[in-house]
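Hallway conversation turned thread

IA: we were arguing at lunch whether anyone had actually written out Aminoglycoside phosphotransferase domain-containing protein end to end. Turns out nobody had. So, for the record, here is the sequence (306 residues) and right after it the structure tokens. Reply here if something looks off.
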Amino acid sequence: MTPEELAARRDRAVAAAVAAGRDLGLEVADGAVLHDVFSVVVHLRPAPVVARIQVVVPPGLPDVVRAARQQRELDVVTWLADQGVAVVKPSALVPPRPLVRNGFAMTFWELADLAPDHQPYGGVDVGLTAPLYAVLARYPGPLPFLAPFNSGLPQLLAALTESELLSAADIGRARREFESLQRILGDERSFARAFPSVSVQALHGDGPSHNVIRTTSGILFSDFEDVCLGPVEWDLAQLGPDANAGYDTAASALGLRRTDPAVQQVMDAARTLQFIGCAALVPELPILAGGLAPVIHAWRSASPRA
């Protein structure tokens, strides 16, 4: 997409959110864009409500799967807030369910009072996530196993085409490696056979240490769109040994399981494939290309996974 097309998509998303907010009874004069990457995040001014509108999703992902993903996030975050966890909460001013307006799927959240040092994707010490996992381990609701890997990545890999980022050989290799990993990660039972001593639990799904909002009252965890069941190593994938060591220290103090190096290696490989699959989204989000190129180069230079 050209810059003009990206701007037009953003403007359509804002208009859809403003119209949806008004239909829900909110006082909305206009929408102020707070963030625009995979989702457009809009403050529905002057209401203390933020709409998060999905604009980039895996091609071919069924609407029912997308809606279920959004509802899981709302359900889990509502439960976490009830447990006293510092999270960005769903807005109490609208029903806690996803809404589609003019083709845009969206959810609604409380407006956070950002701290002066807030930076999008600015991470926090991984050890700070251990208390979050201690609570997530008690989540009582059903969750799919490793949803980002099993629901979304297959569509991304199927949509890959030759480009400046990937050759036909690269695409074939990525698909073969996915098939190999799926024999281990395709469901909870398969994972348990491969790693019988490794527990699974509710996860953030996309690395909570880098999905935080710095507010004037402290750190809030956010963006639980990929919430799922799995080993905690999935959320630590590609963060490196120092991150694992920091998490292990904090986890041990809370009586949680330490990370398993063999599982971490598998999760790192699976996360790399997720990055490679995102090459299918570059036409819709060209900014991805620069970040994906070094990941793909490193993967291409490594020995293929059997």
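OS: looked through it. DSSP finds ten helices and nine strands in the chain.
IA: good, adding that to the notes. The first helix runs from residue 3 to 23.
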